[in-house]
Amino acid sequence: MNQYLIPANSKKGKLIFGMFTKFDIILLSIGIVVTLLLLIIIGPENLTVAIICLSPLLISGFLVIPIPNYHNVLTVIKEMIDFFYGRRNYKWKGWCYKDEFK
Questions:
Q1: Which residue among 18, 52, 64, 68 is least enclosed by CB atoms within 10 Å?
Q2: CA distance linking residue 62 with residue 36, whole number of Å
Q3: Is 94 helix (H, G, I), strand (E, B) or coil?
């Protein structure tokens, strides 16, 4: 009779290290590789150039950093874009929902 099981941490087991998706790891890896290439090629000699060289790592790290209630900033950005430019009617069916009419 209308008993629902709340999936509080059901998705956490599917994540790498309990907090990253495959896309997050790929994005962070690309940021690291681009940063290393920039540091090797440019060889920064002042602070401004060093910040420019480190910016791919900082941006990709900011996008995948875990924050409370969402697994990363990239998810928040995707959800904001989906909310403002996508559909606004969300259909949800419970995790252990029992169809009474089937």
A1: 68
A2: 17
A3: coil
Contacts of 1 (CB under 8 A, 6+ apart): none
Confidence of residue 7 (pLDDT cuts 50, 70, 90): low
- The tens digit of pLDDT for each residue in 45-84 reads 999 999 999 999 999 999 988 877 667 788 888 888 888 8
What's the mean per-residue pLDDT of the chain?
80
Q: Which two tokens stand for residue 76?
A: 């928040």
Residue 42 confidence class, pLDDT cut points 50, 70, 90? very high
Among candidate residues 32, 18, 23, 39, the one with its CA nearest the CA of residue 61? 32
Cα–Cα distance, 21 to 10 (Å, whole number): 14
